[in-house]
Amino acid sequence: MIRLAALACGLVCGIGLVLSGMADPAQVQAFLRPGAGWDPTFGLALVAAVAVTFVGVILHRRGQPATAGSAASTDTLDARLIAGSLIFGLGWGLSGFSPGTSLVAAGQFVGDGALFAAAALIGMLLHDLTTTRGRANMKNLRSRG
Amino acid sequence: MIFDWVQTAQGGAVIGGGLVGLAAALLLILTGRSMNLSDMLGSLLGGNEGPAAANIAFLAGLVLAPTLWQLWAPAPAAADAGSLTLVLVAGLLAGFGARLGGTGISGQVILGLARPSKRALVAVVCLFLGGALGAAAIGWFSAVTVPT
């Protein structure tokens, strides 16, 4: 049941990404690149997405017992978040793809999308192989079987 | 008419963006999961994100969505644009950064801002800073290397 719900949500998300133009690298880059020819369309789509998600978050919270401490645990800042987001952003701006939109593009039979998704997986693997934290995580997984 | 408006770039952006938000909201309410697409892709490598089957189902939905669309209406044209090397390097950077920071566009910008958390705000600023730098570098890159 959860898998079916996830599949349906993936379909809705994918159709939304295509319809909004968020899966179009050119539109993403036209938003990210400042100066002449700046195109706010991608930002408009983001605002709409955040607004609807916000309603969902409120509805979800209403059905949940209040959990003390959960807010604090997700509200810590660290260098990894900052460095990771800057590096991620660089790849995002260079290509106009993010891992999610690259999969939609791959579904449109765009070779760049499939290549980006594969490269992102390799990048994740590189992280796990080269950082102590990543190595510890892999070891942990292996011992769990 | 609303159908004419949806066919403009702005109308499509609002309705399409709304659908992305709807997917995030439904996934949260129905399964209790956060729609962090980069994490979902990463879970294919094995990770701490619970049973991977639901993630695989969601990712399959993303890939199949354009085909489903084609059944009803012609989908917008999409084509290769970037150089292969560039796409490869960009993918490596995005994957590495996503794993390093537990970050991503859907997870931090959409869900993060909807929640909202201080952590997500910082991530969003860094994502857009990196994105602006990358997109600006493309103009420079194509000016010096591709004289086609």
Notes on the protein architecture:
The complex is a heterodimer of chains A (145) and B (148). In chain A, 77% of the residues lie in helices and 0% in strands. Chain A is globular, with a radius of gyration of 18 Å. The model of chain A is unreliable at 68-73 (pLDDT under 50). In chain A, helix 7 packs across helix 8 (132-144). Chain A has 145 residues and is an all-alpha fold. Chain A has helices at 2-20, 25-32, 41-62, 70-73, 79-95, 99-107, 111-130, 132-144. Chain B is globular, with a radius of gyration of 18 Å. By secondary structure, chain B is mainly α. Chain B contains seven helices and no strands. The model of chain B has no long low-confidence stretch (mean pLDDT 88). Chain B has helices spanning 2-6, 9-31, 37-42, 52-72, 84-101, 105-114, 118-145. The chains are: A mainly alpha (145), B mainly alpha (148).
Short characterization:
Chain A has 145 residues and is mainly alpha-helical. In chain A, 77% of the residues lie in helices and 0% in strands.
Write a concise keyword list for the protein shown above.
A: about 140 residues, mainly alpha, 8 helices, B: about 150 residues, 7 helices
Residue runs with pLDDT of under 50 for 5 or more positions of chain A: 68-73
Assign a percent range to the helix content of chain A: over 70%
Oligomer: heterodimer
Query: What order do the helices and strands of chain B follow?
Result: HHHHHHH
Largest sheet of chain A: none
SSE order of chain A, as H and E? HHHHHHHH
Integer-rounded radius of gyration of chain B: 18 Å
End-to-end Cα distance of chain A: 26 Å
Tally of separate helices of chain B = 7
The portion of residues forming beta strands of chain B comes to under 5%
SS content category of chain B: mainly alpha
pLDDT averaged residue by residue of chain A: 88
Which structural category fits the helices and strands of chain A? mainly alpha
- Segments of chain B where pLDDT lies below 50 for 5+ residues? none
In DSSP terms (H or I, runs of 4 or more residues), the helix count of chain A works out at 8
Q: Main sheet of chain B, how many strands, which sense, barrel?
A: none
Give the beta-strand count of chain A.
Answer: 0
Q: In one word, what is the shape of chain B?
A: globular
Report Rg of chain A. 18 Å
Instruction: Please tell me what the overall shape of chain A is.
Output: globular
Distance between the termini of chain B: 43 Å
